[in-house]
Amino acid sequence: MPPLVSLSGVAKTFANGLKALDGIDLDIARGEFLSLLGPSGCGKSTALRIIAGLTPPTAGTVAWSDAPDGDHRGEIGFVFQEPTLMPWADVAGNVGLPLRLRGQSRREAWPRIEESLERVGLREFAHAYPGELSGGMSMRVSIARALSLRPKLLLMDEPFAALDEITRFRLNDDLLRLHRELGCTVVFVTHSVFESVYLSHRIAVMTPRPGRIAATLAVDPAQRRDEAFRSSAQYASLCGKASRALADASGPGRPS
Amino acid sequence: MRRAGPGRDRAQARDARLRVALPLVVCIAGLLAWEAYVRLAAVPPYILPAPTLIAATLVTDRHILLASWLVTLETALLGLGLAVLGGVALAVALSLSRIVEYAVYPLAVALQVTPVVAVAPLLLIYLPESVAVLACAFVVAFFPILSNTMLGLQSVDRNLLELFALYGQPVGRSTAAARFRARAKALWHLRRPAALPSFLAGLRIAGGLSLIGAVVAEMAAGSAGASSGLAYRIIESQYRLNIPRLFAALVLLITTGILIYLLTSAVSHRLLRRWHPSALTPER
Ligand SMILES: Nc1ncnc2c1ncn2[C@@H]1O[C@H](COP(=O)(O)OP(=O)(O)O)[C@@H](O)[C@H]1O
Ligand SMILES: [Mg+2]
């Protein structure tokens, strides 16, 4: 099966001359859970924004296998590191924003809003305001918003980096469940080796400045991800491998 | 620290009562001291009238004072209303078009730094007096609304704008009309609500300023004019050495200022209470 999206030779040099990405070749397979792992500042967010079409690459191409030059923005859900909710709108209003921007009335959007909230377990909070929610709940709302257009591709930019560990573990499990239920493709940016191994089918390890893909690591997709996996020897060895790949990518002499 | 349950409610209620009671006590104590001083030192009313005499003047001169009060109040509120309309409309225009922003904003700043007192005589030459007074109230109230609204319109979370670019912007090669529509959409869905708190902060400032503008213009018009606002009454009372009436008019002016402040604060609180930190009751 052809990949959902493939990046070839993607590079990005910012107007100030900073070369953030150089020669990224990456095929994103349908239905896979792919992590981009790298130290901060290595261009992970930039890569994600290029995939989303929010910023054009300065070289190379991003090709979707179906309708190569169509508009794919409706098929993308984007989750930022911060929940980025509109404080003036209630949870339902936030989740429905993509639908509203696509021209639907709140009533037309309502079934989808409820469905999305149901998926993240926040149905009773439809009328709460973001100021009343905890960090973990806000992030769930943010994920529900990204799901409201039923995207084929979910792009997540270090979504759980600001959460405490207990909340992060719970959201990791919820994300895996959503991925199973929806069968969507996920590209997940993280700087945590452990998180990337726990979640992914494939890990792309990036080098810093300019960002390149130094290595990719596979984790058996059939592997059950649960507490037992987290404490297994297999998990530990995968984490060790990923850590070494990350250290190699960052280069021997580089200060981190 | 958060204290839970009825204990906190009670503490809050006591806090609220104190916040009303304390200024009242201070105010009454001040008035009593004033009254006592005037009586004990036998100060003549044309130097310093006692609070009771001012109150009595408010009652006896109520017809004149009420008519003047209505004139000033109308000027201030109308000036404020026009400033809101003009300030918001211009802020929106500026945020929709960079060209308009570059062209107009410096002029608005120049208008802001020009002291009204200096402009009022000119306005009085070119405009009929009632219009000139209104124009003054408008001019001083206009800028805080404009600058605060602009600030608010620009204060949208960058990530929200990205999200908007992902879902709300026109597809492919976009025409100027489509780009304008996208901007208008972002204005409505993101910038308008994001701007509300700063707009309301501007409104609270502008409310007080519109009254000051009206008073300054009435003073500049002075005895020459036929107008009859409170500031005019103050000048007239000064000429006639009717100091109790001067104080009575001053009391009315202060009351008006407080009323406008309470009104704009209430509007602000009502619009923001569900979500903005400024309107949520502080919990200590
Ligand atoms: N708009 C921009 N203009 C100039 N430099 C930028 C811009 N955005 C990001 N950068 C730089 O590009 C590099 C990569 O950024 P980013 O993709 O955000 O990294 P990461 O998400 O991996 O932390 C950083 O050094 C950052 O400072
Ligand atoms: Mg980043």
Written overview of the protein:
The complex is a heterodimer of chains A (256) and B (284). With 256 residues, chain A is of the alpha/beta class. Chain A is 36% helix and 23% strand. Chain A has 2 domains: 29-57 and 68-72 and 153-256, Rossmann fold; 87-151. Chain A is built from 9 helices and 9 strands. In chain A, the strands form 2 sheets. Chain A has a 6-stranded mixed sheet with strand order 5-6-7-3-8-9, sandwiched between helices. Chain A has a 3-stranded antiparallel sheet with strand order 2-1-4, with helices on one face. In chain A, β8 and β9 (212-218) form a beta hairpin. The termini of chain A are far apart. Chain B is mostly helical. Chain B folds into 2 domains: 7-42; 47-279, MetI-like fold (Orthogonal Bundle). The longest helix of chain B has 46 residues, at 176-221. The radius of gyration of chain B is 24 Å and the shape is flat. The A-B interface holds A 49, 52-54, 71, 73-74, 76, 78, 80, 82, 84, 86-89, 97-98, 100-102, 129-131, 149 and B 157, 159-160, 162-168, 171-172, 185, 189-190, 193-194, 196, 274-277, 280. Magnesium ion binds next to α1 of chain A.
Give a topology summary.
The complex is a heterodimer of chains A (256) and B (284).
Chain A: E1 5-13, E2 19-28, E3 33-37, H1 44-52, E4 59-64, E5 76-79, H2 91-95, H3 97-101, H4 106-119, H5 135-147, E6 153-157, H6 165-182, E7 185-190, H7 193-199, E8 202-207, E9 212-218, H8 227-230, H9 233-250
Parallel strand pairs in A: 3-7, 3-8, 5-6, 6-7
Antiparallel strand pairs in A: 1-2, 1-4, 8-9
Chain B: H1 5-40, H2 51-60, H3 62-96, H4 98-113, H5 116-126, H6 129-153, H7 158-168, H8 176-221, H9 230-239, H10 243-272
Helix pairs in contact in B: 2-10, 3-4, 3-6, 3-8, 3-9, 3-10, 4-6, 5-6, 5-8, 6-8, 7-8, 8-9, 8-10, 9-10
The structure holds adenosine-5'-diphosphate (ADP) and magnesium ion.
The site of adenosine-5'-diphosphate has 12 residues of chain A, from helix 1.
